[in-house]
Amino acid sequence: YFEANLIWLYDMKLVIERLAIDWDVLFDRASRWGLRAVVAFNLSFLDKVFPGAVPREALARARPGIVRRALAGPFLSPSPRHLFRREGNRLNQFALGLLAIDRPVDAARFAAGKIGRSLRWLGRRPRRR
After folding, report:
1. What is the pTM of this model?
2. Which of 25, 42, 72, 99 has its CA 20 to 30 A from that of 84?
3. Widest CA span in the chain
4. What SS3 string covers the chain?
């Protein structure tokens, strides 16, 4: 979602228009692979840019739960070109990365890894030449 290109969204639109999407399979796999939130964000963004491209039933099934919607709400952009506001802001990217992870244990692992790498990076001194 950060620096998304219109061509990616248009490709998704064409796939939905030209192929018979088995939405049951898509949502089942997304659930098993821990990607339900990612699918929801993708379909939401596609529908924002190309209204009506995603069947209403698929949008309803993809809709995240009330807690995730409430947490993501302040990040949503009113701009038609962006799903999220201030996409270039690293802290926003971190928060949205957490929101895109379905399983809390995976989100905690992601956060610990990012914070750990950031703390190690802060402790480094620039090399002298």
Report:
1. 0.74
2. 25
3. 60
4. CCCCCHHHHHHHHHHHHHCCCCHHHHHHHHHHCCCHHHHHHHHHHHHHHCCCCCCHHHHHHHCCCHHHHHHHHHHECCCCCCCECCCCCHHHHHHHHHHCCCCHHHHHHHHHHHHHHHHHHHCCCCCCC
Q: What are phi and psi of 10, to 5 degrees?
A: -65, -40
- Looking up tokens 């949008």 gives 59
Structure confidence by residue, pLDDT tens digits, 12-66 = 899 999 999 999 999 999 999 988 998 998 898 899 889 999 999 999 999 988 8
